[in-house]
Write a structure and sequence with these properties.
Elements (H helix, E strand, L loop, with lengths): L2 H13 L23 E6 L2 E8 L11 H8 L3 E4 L8 H7 L9 H5 L1 H10 L5 H5 L3 H13 L5 H11 L3 E4 L4 H8 L3 H13 L1 H16 L3 H7 L12 H24 L2 E6 L9 H7 L5 E2 L2
Parallel strand pairs: 2-5, 3-4, 3-5
Antiparallel strand pairs: 1-2, 1-6
Length: 293
């Protein structure tokens, strides 16, 4: 299997915390006392629970200030979005591919846009790339530009397991993939065309997003997220299905973790912020989270 096919299938794993997570060795973060990415603390009677917003692409775990890893190490249990067990890898791969009977991605895009996509992913086997759903091809572009050796989500999970912490998942991987696959193919093609045509601006915005993340600027992070392709635009059906609805489904488990104490909950940062974010939903249950600086 060629390298780009591997990237195309593991891209979703990284971008939305899916896929078989490779067990990585524990690594030490930056011990400086600089600003922290979105890390929040809930102080309960039974102990402290941390809620951390990850950035799935573009940041090495080694770049994180030590406070993030300290919070994880201080927790007896950890929760992450999801994983794909080995027994479901083929189902996951199939979910990234266009349905039977659909035109190929090459035919859907047209010659000019297909050539641009191929130029962005020069190592991709054309037949493999052309079989992907538009969203999977789009995320492959981000993976190609922003892949890291120690991405945050799998490295934190491996560290938690290595320390003996209990690790759970908030949902089945289908809960992440199904909203993407519910988008009509024509709409997905339109979004991919927009990405390919405006790739320089999107990648520049993502670079700014990365800086805001490492700089601990949650306000700027939230503002940049749609422009940088890190989350669907607010008010769209996809935002509702992919972000807001999933936040609601996670809420009972996260509230229970806050009540028990001793938990480290790590989800994509876009799930934490905004009026429909996890932090706002917890506040409505009278569970207050303090920003860790």
């Amino acid at each position: 299997m060629r390298r780009a096919r591997r990237r195309a299938t593991t891209t979703l794993a990284t971008l939305v915390a899916l896929g078989a997570l490779v067990a990585l060795g524990a690594c030490g973060g930056d011990d400086s006392s600089g600003p922290l990415p979105p890390l929040y603390r809930i102080a309960g009677a039974a102990g402290t629970t941390y809620i951390y917003g990850t950035l799935h692409l573009g940041v090495e775990t080694d770049e994180l200030p030590g406070g993030v890893l300290d919070a994880l190490d201080a927790s007896a249990s950890a929760a992450f979005e999801s994983t794909v067990p080995a027994s479901e890898q083929s189902l996951f791969r199939e979910a990234t591919r266009l349905p039977a009977g659909e035109k190929t991605l090459e035919a859907l895009l047209g010659a000019e846009a297909w050539a641009k996509l191929r130029a962005l992913l020069p190592d991709a086997a054309p037949t493999e790339l052309s079989a992907l759903r538009p969203w999977a091809a789009g995320t492959a572009i981000f993976q190609d530009r922003f892949a890291t050796k120690r991405p945050i989500d799998p490295t934190l999970e491996a560290r938690a397991r290595d320390s003996g912490s209990t690790v759970i998942y908030l949902e089945h991987w289908r809960a992440q993939v199904d909203p993407l696959n519910a988008v009509p193919i024509a709409d997905g093609v339109a979004s991919l065309l927009q990405l390919v045509d405006g790739i320089d601006a999107v990648l520049a915005a993502y670079a700014k997003l990365r800086s805001a993340y490492l700089g601990g600027d949650d306000t700027r992070l939230w503002q940049l997220a749609p422009e940088a392709g890190a989350m669907p635009a607010l008010g769209t059906p996809l935002y509702q299905r992919f972000i807001a609805d999933r936040n609601q489904r996670w809420l009972d488990a996260i509230a229970k973790a806050a009540d028990e104490g001793g938990w480290f909950v790590a989800v994509g940062f876009a799930h934490l912020l905004g009026d429909q974010g996890v932090l706002a939903l917890l506040e409505r249950r009278n569970i207050s989270a303090e920003r860790v600086r």
